[in-house]
Write a structure and sequence with these properties.
The complex is a heterotrimer. By secondary structure, chain B is mainly α. Chain B is built from 12 helices and no strands. The longest helix of chain C is centred in the first third of the chain and has 35 residues, at 54-88. The chains are: A alpha+beta, B mainly alpha, C mainly alpha.
Chain lengths: 354, 275, 280
């Protein structure tokens, strides 16, 4: 048995002139929780639906457990989906909804009964099996949708923005619960979301998508610390992206006429590069030693956000930069218009080409 | 003061005209029902006495009974066929976009607005050319064409109110397309299908224009029988048969109200829902 | 449900086959017949003889004239009724009752409905006997069997369709627009003229075209209520098959009637499509 349960190989999907997937390749390891993250229209849902069998790819291949899936209808694929709006059958009770899959597999009534009971218990809905979907709250409907999918013990559980229909508080709680369920079941989860926080909170690995391709694949921490592109840096967490000039020798000039930095680019004629630094890495003061980059700036605005102040500063060349320097006394006293210095450790920043 | 008066007059005007309109709608049917109980030998309004003898006369006249039977068989056969043809067609229209879908749906719905008398003539000539004129088969095919649009229209309305994700979920959980249709789709569009069947049944049941060209002295539907009868006799027997058809209409209206709610069904009758 | 094209084609096979065999083919044959000599061979002579005969023209004009009146009457009664249903009837049971009243006639045979009018309008009918009893007239009025009774009968049959059409649009008129007009100082009648009526016009137009088209092609009501005194196109068509036995002329007249109807429906579709686009 191979380690990769789903292999997506150069998948392309075109709808007439529109390209939804432009050659996606992805190997999902058995038992991992992987999130497809991107804004709407990036192809993440199309990819999920292609794995489920609702979208027939234009070219490329999907293999599940090594078996090619081309031409295999959704009902014969060893995967199950939790739909965005739950898609619970309104004319069936929660139990009947959950029993729908096992019944299609012609399991014995006793087996079906046991599985439904276990599935209800797993999602914490004991005793609510006789209710119709309309008699359940949004969160409870979500749990039924989950139970209905996992009761079939699929090779991969596909989740299409399953928390999108819930309010913020419930969403946070379901995130924890989904994570717990994933660990408990040891099942492979393929999760589609446009919410980066959700992806960071739950997924073992995140595939960031844009315009039909995966632009970066890695753990949340990896992607956060080492975004591959400006786009990824901007999409995952908050990032200062400072446009810098590159001179003929490859030295990076952070601000025109300002102090040169420690950064260098290969001298290949690139004239511009983005410097990415997270707000929490930006400190006040000149810093100490050659490991730090320090720049003069003017404070434009200040907001208290709880654990820290958030400062909005303007650099000498007019570019804006945000800093989260904590909430010490020296920050307390700063007023808009104040001239300050900001610095960061040189390893806290990344150079990103556009 | 002045404005108040104008507005009040407006309200009174609307209520008055509406009352007239409702009387206008109710009166002919009420009159027919009333005179069907008259004890006189001729038509009289207000009716005198109260008797069921005209109903008895209809029931004991084999030609009327025969016509009721023909109409019933025809309406049931046409409705059943319309369901078999119309529901799958509606399903495809609702769930799949394809190049000719607009043309095809216009084709299937056009009998709603084309002159039914022309449909009757066309079927007569066609059936004559093929040798099945003035037969049950000729009546049957004409009625199927006439009533299938009703099934398609109400089924489409139900289907568009249903989340396609339900069908995907069923397939995702291992159901074949056929299982998906019978276990998930049909239970959810049931009301629309029933309403469509009732619309189909009643429009076959009351049709004259298609039937009249394809009837014979022996093979005659109840509306055609009435049509022929009314040319020569205007008497309480006619009133009794007519009243009977009104009772059936009321039953069907009640059935539709129970199936989908009368308001929803009525909304489906307006030209908005036409091709 | 994601259909494969094969599945869709399979489901469509029956309906398409049936409609080709028993709808398109009969209509095609009818149209072909209108271009045929009785002895065979293609000709325009049927159309020439129909279009050059004042008798047929009179029937066509009479049909259109009657239909126009029917449309006007059903609008004059249908609009207030629709307005009443949508804005004044609050109780669900009241609405239900009115809808039953609208639907029951639609589900009753035209003959039965015409019969009702014979009883009401006849020389010894309700109207005449009441007027005589009240001493308003000395001899019974000749209402039945003429243009007037046809218009009364047809408007009665088509009133529900007009009213339902206007209802469906009035229901979608945004109440907050009417409230906004009131808020800006318009009294109810002014708000109606400035807001409600213009917004409901599409329903009026749609209803009118459909009522007109159905009225042009109505056969049973004119046939029973004309008493042989009025000629309309559908009666003329019927006669070609039942009395004069000229199926070639019958086919030609059918095609003319079909053309008139298609013209009306076509204009309806164009207007309606444009409205759809305007709405978004």
């Amino acid at each position: 048995m191979t380690l990769d349960v789903v292999v997506v190989d150069s998948l392309v999907k075109r709808y007439g002139p529109v390209t939804a997937l432009a050659g996606v390749s992805l190997a999902v390891r058995r038992g991992e929780f992987i999130a497809l993250l991107g804004p709407s229209g990036c192809g993440k849902t199309t990819l999920l639906r292609a794995v489920a069998g609702f979208v027939e790819p234009t070219s490329g291949e999907i293999r599940i457990n090594g078996r090619p899936m081309r031409g295999v209808p959704p009902n014969l694929r060893p995967v199950n989906t939790v739909f965005q709006q739950f898609a619970l059958f309104p004319h069936m009770t929660a139990s009947e909804n959950i029993a729908f899959g096992p019944r299609r597999q012609r399991l014995s009534p006793a087996e079906i009964h046991g599985r439904v009971r276990d599935a209800l218990a797993m999602v914490g809905l004991e005793g609510l099996g006789a209710r119709y979907p309309r008699e359940l709250s949004g969160g409870q409907q979500q749990r039924v949708a989950l139970a209905r999918a996992i009761v079939n013990r699929p090779e991969v559980l596909l989740l299409d923005e399953p928390l999108g229909a819930l309010d913020l508080k419930l969403r946070k709680r379901m995130q924890v619960e989904l994570k717990r369920l994933h660990q408990q079941l040891g099942m492979t989860f393929l999760f589609v979301t446009h919410d980066q926080e959700e992806a960071l909170a739950m997924a073992d690995r995140i595939a960031v998508m844009r315009e039909g391709v995966i632009v970066q694949l890695g753990s949340g921490a990896q992607i956060y610390r080492n975004p591959a592109t400006r786009y990824v840096a901007d999409f995952i967490g908050e990032a200062n992206l400072i446009t810098c000039q590159v001179d003929a020798s490859g030295a990076v000039q952070i601000t025109p006429n300002g102090p040169g930095g420690p950064y260098r680019m290969p001298a290949n004629g690139t004239q511009q590069v983005s410097l990415m630094v997270r707000p929490e890495s930006v400190r006040l003061g000149c810093g100490a030693g050659a490991d730090h980059v320090a720049l003069p700036a003017t404070l434009k605005d200040k907001a208290f956000v709880g654990s820290t102040y958030r400062l909005y500063l303007v650099l000498a060349d007019g570019q804006e930069i945000a800093a989260e320097p904590g909430c010490g006394r020296e920050v307390d006293e700063l007023a808009p218009g104040a001239a300050v210095w900001v610095h960061w450790h040189k390893d806290a920043a990344r150079l990103l080409e556009d | 003061m002045h404005a108040d008066l104008a507005d009040r007059l407006g309200r009174i005007f609307i209520a008055a005209v509406s009352t007239i309109a409702m009387l206008y709608l109710a009166l002919p049917l009420l009159v027919v029902i009333a005179i069907s109980f008259t004890a006189t030998e001729y038509l009289r309004f207000p009716p005198q006495g109260l008797t069921l003898r005209w109903y008895w006369q209809v029931v004991s006249d084999p030609t009327f009974v025969e016509a009721f039977v023909v109409s019933g068989e025809l309406a049931v056969a046409a409705t059943a066929t319309a369901l078999i043809l119309g529901v799958p067609a509606a399903l495809v229209f609702a769930r799949k976009r394809f190049p000719l879908s607009q043309v095809l749906s216009a084709l299937f719905l056009s009998p709603l607005v084309l002159p039914t008398i022309v449909l009757g003539v066309a079927i007569l000539q066609y059936a004559s050319a093929l040798g099945f004129a003035r037969s049950f088969l000729a009546l049957f095919v004409g009625h199927v064409v006439l009533v299938t649009p009703y099934v398609i229209r109400t089924s489409l309305a139900s289907l568009s109110g249903m989340q396609p994700a339900h069908e995907e979920a069923a397939q995702d959980l291992g159901a074949t397309p056929l299982q998906t249709f019978f276990l998930i789709t049909l239970p959810q569009i049931k009301a629309g299908v029933i309403a469509g069947a009732l619309f189909a049944f009643i429009n076959s049941w009351i049709n004259v224009e298609v039937s009249i060209f394809n009837s014979t002295a022996q093979l005659v539907t109840i509306p055609v029988k009435l049509f022929n009868y009314i040319q020569f006799n205007i008497d309480p027997t006619l009133a009794a048969v007519s009243a009977a058809t009104i009772y059936i209409a009321i039953l069907v209206v009640v059935a539709i109200d129970l199936a989908v709610g009368i308001e929803k069904a009525a909304a489906n009758t307006g030209p908005e829902a036409r091709p | 449900m994601r259909f494969t094209s094969a599945n869709a084609a399979f489901l469509m096979l029956g309906p398409i086959a049936f409609f080709v065999l028993f709808f398109l083919a009969p209509f095609g044959l009818l149209i072909a017949e209108s271009f045929m000599r009785p002895q065979g061979g293609v000709t325009l002579s049927n159309y020439i003889s129909v279009l050059s005969d004042g008798y047929y023209w009179n029937a066509l004009i009479n049909t259109l004239l009657i239909s126009l009146w029917v449309t006007v009457v059903s609008f004059l009664l249908g609009y207030p009724l629709a307005y009443f249903i949508v804005f004044h009837v609050r109780r669900p049971w009241g609405r239900r009752l009115i809808y039953v009243l609208l639907m029951t006639p639609l589900f009753t045979s035209n003959i039965v409905r015409a019969f009702g009018w014979i009883v009401i309008l006849g020389r010894r009918g309700i109207v005449n006997s009441s007027l005589l009893a009240l001493g308003l007239i000395n001899t019974p009025l000749d209402i039945l069997y003429g243009k007037l009774s046809i218009i009364i009968g047809l408007a009665y049959i088509l009133l529900p369709i007009m009213a339902l059409s206007i209802c469906s649009v009035l229901q979608t008129v945004d109440r907050s627009l009417i409230e906004a007009a009131r808020d800006l100082g318009a009294r109810p009648s002014r708000a109606f003229i400035a807001v409600t009526f213009p917004l409901s016009l599409p329903g009026v137009v749609a209803g009118s075209i459909i009522v007109f088209a159905l009225s042009v092609s109505a056969y049973v009501i004119p046939s029973i209520l004309s008493g042989g005194r009025e000629m309309v196109m559908p009666i003329l068509i019927f006669q070609q098959y039942a009395a004069t036995f000229r199926p070639d002329i019958g086919a030609t007249l059918s095609v003319v009637l079909l053309a008139v109807t298609l013209l009306l429906i076509g204009s309806y579709l164009i207007l309606f499509e444009r409205r759809l686009r305007a709405v978004g």
